[in-house]
Amino acid sequence: MSTPQQVESDLGWALGRVARAHLKTAQTVLVGLPGGPRGYQVLAAVARGEPSTQLALARKLGVDRTVMTYLLDEIQAEGLVERRPDPADRRARRVELTEAGRARLCELERKLRDAEDHMLAPLGPDERATLRDLLARLATADPDQPSACQVAQDLQDGCTETPSP
Predict the structure, then answer these.
(1) For the purposes of burial, counting CB atoms within 10 Å of the CB of 53, is it exposed (0-12), middle (13-18) or buried (19 or more)?
(2) Which residues contact 81 (CB under 8 A, 6 or more apart)?
(3) Where do the domains of the chain lie, and which CATH numbers do they carry?
(4) What is the pLDDT along the chain (165 residues), one digit of tens a residue?
C-alpha cells in the first residue's frame, strides 16, 4: 500500500497555484491596459508579426472572433494598434502596432518580467530559463490544447484555491 503524497507534490495543485499567482501578478502589472492579460497577449503577438490578420490573431490566442473585435476596438481607441485592409484580401483586417503601442508593450514587458522574476525568486536564473522553456514546450505541444489566453480566462472565471480531488 502506498503512502499518500502531500498536496505540494501534486502537479495539478502546483500548476494551479503558480498560474493563479501569475494571473494575479499580471492583472496588477497590466492594470489600465484594455483587456488586461488578453490585451497584453494581443500586443505581444502583433509585435512578433504572428499572425497578421484579425481573424488569425483571434484563432492563435483562442479568443472568439467577436470578442477579439471588441478587444481590438478598445486597444485601438487607446492608440496602441491600427487595423488596415489586408492587401492580399480586402475583406481581412491586418493588425499593426503603433509607435505608442510599441512603447507601451516595451514598458509592460519590462514590468511583467520584473514581477515574474520576483515571483520566481526561489529559482536560480538557469532554473527560471528552464522552467520558461519547459512550459513553452508544453503549451505549444498540442494544437488541441486551450490557448494561454483561454487558460487565464478560465482561471479568472472560476478557479478557487481548493484543488479538485
Answers:
(1) middle
(2) 42, 43, 46, 72, 75, 95, 96, 97, 98, 101
(3) 7-156 (1.10.10.10)
(4) 555 668 777 888 889 999 999 999 999 999 999 999 999 999 999 999 877 788 889 998 889 999 999 999 999 999 999 998 888 888 888 899 999 999 999 999 999 999 999 999 999 999 999 999 998 898 888 766 666 666 666 766 765 444 444
Give yes or no for a contact between 23 and 155, defined as CB atoms under 8 angstroms apart.
yes
User: Which SS3 state, helix, strand or coil, does residue 87 take?
Assistant: coil
Give the DSSP letter string of 44-71. HHHHTT-S-BHHHHHHHHT--HHHHHHH
Q: Which residue has the cell 492608440?
A: 79
- Ramachandran assignment for 80, one of left (phi > 0), alpha (psi -120 to 50 degrees), beta (any other): alpha
Question: Nearest to residue 59, comparing CAs of 137, 147, 134?
Answer: 147
Considering the entire predicted model, what is its pTM?
A: 0.75
